[in-house]
Amino acid sequence: MEEKIDYIKLASNKPKGKRPYFHDDPAVERVLNITMAIAGELAVIRERMDSIERLLEKKGTVTREEIETFVPETKEQEEQRQTWHAEYIGRVLRIVQQEQEELENPDKSIEEIADDINEM
Amino acid sequence: MSARNLPPVYNKIAQHAVFPEMNHDERARYNFLANLNKHLAHVSTGNKIAFENRVAPKFEKEHGRKIASTEELKEAISKDAHYQVWSSLRRSTMEMRQQAGRSLVLRQAAALRDKVRALNQGKDSLVLDNKVAVPPYLLACDNHIMPGSYHTELIEDDVTPAANYDTGLFVTTAGLLGRYSDGGGKAIVSWVKKTYPDFNPKRILDIGCGMGHNVLPIAKAFPDAEVIGIDTGAPMLRYAHARAMDLGYTNVKFMQMDAAKTSFEDESFDWVQSTMFFHETGGKSIYNIMNEVYRVLKPNGLTLHIEQPQYTEDMSLFEKFIRDWDALNNSEPYWSKMHDIEPLDLMKSSGFREEDFMQIGAKAENDLDDGSQKADEPEDHGRSPIWNVFGAFKN
Ligand SMILES: C[S@@+](CC[C@H](N)C(=O)[O-])C[C@H]1O[C@@H](n2cnc3c(N)ncnc32)[C@H](O)[C@@H]1O
């Protein structure tokens, strides 16, 4: 028997028995499952941050009070922090933006473009 | 403080030598999932409201009559947005729990196996028999969507099915079974000791013992008794035995056997116990197993079975439906059928007498409950540590 197993793939195996879907469109189910997995990983990172803060405090590096009351100290810091949020939201809501762009500027399908290009 | 009960932090779970190693993020992932489970129990209360306020009225308007069966109810509620999102989140949470458990145990499969081997080496209290077949109902479906079920071995002498089970039970039940997940075993011991103070079993059998967590409190309570746990899953038994060795038990034995046809002699046990076992068997096997219980039990011997709560006559259709949710959507298929069997009839069919039949309610003994838990939490159907216990003395 093989000793080295692909644990990453095996960990996500499907159990025997057909999977129930609850939303009218299975795509909703799919997206929700992916979203919840990411929500979980965000919670994991949040807990890790909490550990780091408590350890830093215990070792006398910074106190959690200092972290809690920290606000940007320069104009540059303010901008850096707000830019991060803006970038992050842009990334997460990419599809909504793209759908809006499409709405504003209806596009041809790639097949149609291919036909067009074929004539170019 | 929070207005709702919070699950205990994962690191409260009891450690032992074969418990998988877990890093910071793996514990955090389980904390997230335990909280998500708790949260969804609250969200589930919306199902009843949605049912009463929109699903049932809509059905009545369309059909000019009330919903008459759980099948009709299922069809009607399946279109409800709240039910859809709750169901889909609950299913997703269970899948994530399996993924989280498997990813952490499978990455250390060989190391866990080696630790278990070291503890089991040369011990005659572990008896494996590869001629014991996995019952067909366990091959038909992976119970509680645990890929590979209790028997699949990914490496030689694999123990990961049990290790995964051991880490995850605490998450699914939000820690309500206690640090060793043995709140069921403890509850049955307390009840037996209180009700039958003179009962002094010398030989005890636990059928479908799994990783052995609920049989250990029995072995502890009756240290002079010989206690045997049987299961068809070799990975469960290997792990159960190593776990029990490390926890210092000397009077338990684990043997690979099918509970429907054991190799024990007639009338050789004073007590035959099962815990959360029958609802994971099959429609024919359940009778064969009960016959076997009767056969191996001594006259005046006691048998008790901790099971999911029964359906009752006065239960509403909605209540029945929602209680079956886990059976169908978290893959415990036989649970949805076992409701139709009266425990009394099951026992009578094997020879137990009606006048000896008993049925009681039981609640997990939880060593993590410091008394601060609020009682008015919404019931997490199918997960609450509140059970039906049925059994009899053999006469
Ligand atoms: C849900 S687990 C219950 C484990 C444990 N008793 C507990 O308290 O949680 C069911 C166990 O029964 C075992 N099992 C199912 N059918 C069996 C049979 N016919 N004979 C022996 N074990 C069986 C499975 O392998 C599994 O480990």
Notable traits:
A: 120 residues, mainly alpha, 2 domains, 68% helix, flat, B: 395 residues, Rossmann fold, 8-stranded mixed β-sheet, 14 helices, 13% strand, binds S-adenosylmethionine
Task: Provide an overview of this structure.
The complex is a heterodimer of chains A (120) and B (395). Chain A has helices at 7-11, 26-58, 64-69, 75-92, 94-104, 110-118. Chain A is mainly α. Chain A has two domains: 21-70; 73-120, no CATH class. Chain B has helices at residues 24-63, 70-77, 81-106, 109-120, 136-140, 160-172, 183-195, 216-221, 234-246, 285-296, 317-323, 325-329, 335-338, 343-349; strands at 126-127, 203-207, 226-231, 252-256, 269-275, 297-307, 357-363, 386-393. Chain B is an alpha/beta fold and 395 residues long. Helix content of chain B is 43%, strand content 13%. Classes of the chains: A mainly alpha (120), B alpha/beta (395). The A-B interface holds A 1-3, 5, 7-8, 10-17, 19-24, 28-29, 32-33, 36-37, 39-41, 43-44, 47-48, 51 and B 24-25, 28-29, 31-33, 36, 78-79, 83-85, 87-89, 91-93, 95-96, 98-99, 102-103, 106-107, 109-110, 140-142, 145-149, 153-156, 328-329, 331, 333. S-adenosylmethionine binds at residues 135, 138, 150, 184, 207-210, 214, 230-233, 236, 258-260, 275-277, 280-281, 285 of chain B.
Question: Which helices and strands, and how do they pair?
Answer:
The complex is a heterodimer of chains A (120) and B (395).
Chain A: H1 7-11, H2 26-58, H3 64-69, H4 75-92, H5 94-104, H6 110-118
Chain B: H1 24-63, H2 70-77, H3 81-106, H4 109-120, E1 126-127, H5 136-140, H6 160-172, H7 183-195, E2 203-207, H8 216-221, E3 226-231, H9 234-246, E4 252-256, E5 269-275, H10 285-296, E6 297-307, H11 317-323, H12 325-329, H13 335-338, H14 343-349, E7 357-363, E8 386-393
Parallel strand pairs in B: 1-4, 2-3, 2-5, 3-4, 5-6
Antiparallel strand pairs in B: 6-8, 7-8
Bound molecules: S-adenosylmethionine.
The site of S-adenosylmethionine (SAM) has 23 residues of chain B, from β3.
